[in-house]
């Protein structure tokens, strides 16, 4: 059972959210008095409480979501809070629904020809997915020894990749010069440092231990180790050839999957630290310049209608630079991986048509 001090902090956090009139997170919306009273005394087998779930969103009132799952059990133990948040984020995915079987588009990538063959709008395309190594909890419950052990395991997997296109080198963050690290971040290859949402979720302990990045020579296939999720597997390249990017991701995921078992839940699909990434865990994005339609006041609602999410040029919680936006599929749960990519594909195709038609 959660101790008295934890429960007191939960009461205070609940009150802080209630009083924050300009907070619009899913946490604030769905963290009712009933949910607080039902869940505040609970503790997972690994010792996680509701405070671990909500503390990032309580500290960061500008959160969009506001919750993280410290371990897999949290998704069921605190379902009174997670289920409505999951349902609202992922296009109405209800408690009775199940994530479909994995389909990364084998043999279907021909359905995704280059979105911008003339190279007028799209700068680059990226598709990432997250994976959690079976047998390990998520960041807040990991020990320093866990981080080192996990890094050792994934480094061994990376060393064994012998596909000529994908093989590469693992670069641990420990020992990496600030200059190299900052350049990799600026070039959109590496995760940023000091994310306050992750920090307040207790997800950055022992940093930079166990964190790092693998990439092939061309930096078109990359894997992040132990940032927000145990693994983020990424395929990216210049231009708008979504089919090529997905085919490369598919190949890389299969190689890694053949060497490490991942946590997958029958209902929620692949398990991740943030509920926004559950299911396929796929975020397929383009960096795209749409100067005419992006300047219009209804740009956000057009994107909402196309099930697209808008981010800034340096990822989540960043701003657009020079009118270039990061546009991606929003939902990742309740559809297949191929369908998630197709949602971005069809939506961006429509945005380009609108841009062309805008006077
Ligand atoms: P994630 O996509 O893993 O959820 P972020 O939104 O923080 O995380 O993005 C991570 C990095 O990937 C950022 O540097 C971002 O600019 C970069 N990125 C995302 N989409 C693209 C893209 N289509 N082309 C190039 N870089 C991209
Ligand atoms: C938020 O609520 O805004 C942050 N906790 C991030 C939520 C979704 N993004 C993510 O998982 N990277």
Describe the protein's topology.
Blueprint: H1 4-19, H2 26-30, H3 33-39, H4 50-59, H5 74-77, H6 79-89, E1 122-131, H7 144-160, E2 168-172, H8 178-186, H9 196-200, E3 212-216, E4 221-225, E5 231-238, H10 242-257, E6 264-265, E7 269-270, E8 283-289, H11 291-294, H12 299-305, E9 308-311, E10 324-329, H13 337-357
Antiparallel strand pairs: 1-5, 1-8, 2-3, 3-4, 4-5, 6-7, 8-10, 9-10
Adenosine-5'-diphosphate (ADP) is lined by residues 124-126, 128, 188, 232, 236, 283, 285-287, 311, 313-316, 326.
Which labels suit this protein?
single chain; about 350 residues; alpha+beta; Transferase Creatine Kinase, Chain A, domain 1; Creatine Kinase, Chain A, domain 2; 2 domains; 8-stranded antiparallel beta sheet; two-stranded antiparallel sheet; about 15% strand; globular; binds adenosine-5'-diphosphate; binds citrulline
Explain this structure to me?
With 359 residues, this protein is α+β, with helices and mostly antiparallel strands. The protein folds into two domains: 4-89, Transferase Creatine Kinase, Chain A, domain 1, CATH 1.10.135.10; 109-357, Creatine Kinase, Chain A, domain 2 (2-Layer Sandwich). The protein has 13 helices and ten strands. The chain has helices at 4-19, 26-30, 33-39, 50-59, 74-77, 79-89, 144-160, 178-186, 196-200, 242-257, 291-294, 299-305, 337-357, and strands at residues 122-131, 168-172, 212-216, 221-225, 231-238, 264-265, 269-270, 283-289, 308-311, 324-329. α1 (4-19) packs parallel to α4 (50-59). The radius of gyration is 20 Å and the shape is globular. The mean pLDDT is 97. The structure holds adenosine-5'-diphosphate (ADP) and citrulline.
């Amino acid at each position: 059972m959660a101790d008295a001090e934890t429960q007191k902090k939960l009461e205070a956090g609940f009150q802080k959210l209630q009083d924050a009139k300009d907070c619009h997170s899913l946490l604030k919306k769905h963290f009712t008095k009933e949910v607080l009273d039902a869940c505040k005394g609970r503790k997972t087998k690994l010792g996680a409480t509701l405070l671990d779930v909500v503390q990032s969103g309580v500290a960061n009132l500008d959160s969009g979501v506001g919750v993280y799952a410290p371990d897999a059990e949290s998704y069921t133990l605190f379902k009174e809070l997670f289920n409505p948040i999951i349902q609202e984020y992922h296009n109405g995915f209800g408690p009775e629904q199940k994530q479909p079987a994995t389909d990364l588009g084998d043999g279907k990538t021909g359905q995704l020809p280059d979105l911008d063959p003339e190279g007028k709008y799209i700068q680059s395309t990226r598709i990432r997915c997250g994976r959690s190594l079976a047998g390990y909890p998520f960041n807040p419950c990991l020990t320093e020894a866990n981080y080192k052990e996990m890094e050792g395991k994934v480094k061994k997997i990376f060393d064994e990749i012998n596909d000529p296109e994908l093989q590469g080198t693992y670069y641990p963050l420990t020992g990496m010069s600030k200059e190299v690290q900052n350049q990799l971040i600026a070039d959109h290859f590496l995760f940023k440092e000091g994310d306050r949402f992750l920090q307040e979720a207790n997800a950055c302990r022992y940093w930079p231990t166990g964190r790092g990045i693998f990439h092939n020579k061309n930096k078109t296939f990359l894997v992040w180790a132990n940032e927000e999720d145990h693994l983020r597997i990424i395929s990216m390249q210049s231009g708008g050839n979504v089919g090529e990017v997905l085919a490369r991701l598919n190949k890389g995921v299969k190689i890694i999957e053949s060497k490490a078992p991942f946590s997958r839940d029958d209902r929620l699909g692949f398990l991740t630290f943030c509920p926004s990434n559950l299911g396929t865990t796929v975020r397929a994005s383009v960096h795209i310049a749409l100067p005419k339609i992006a300047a219009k006041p209804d740009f956000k609602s057009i994107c909402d209608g196309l099930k697209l999410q808008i981010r800034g040029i340096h990822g989540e919680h960043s701003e657009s630079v020079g009118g270039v936006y990061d546009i991606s599929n929003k939902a990742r749960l309740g559809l297949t991986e191929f369908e998630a990519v197709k949602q971005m594909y069809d939506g961006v195709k429509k945005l380009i048509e609108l841009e062309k038609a805008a006077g």
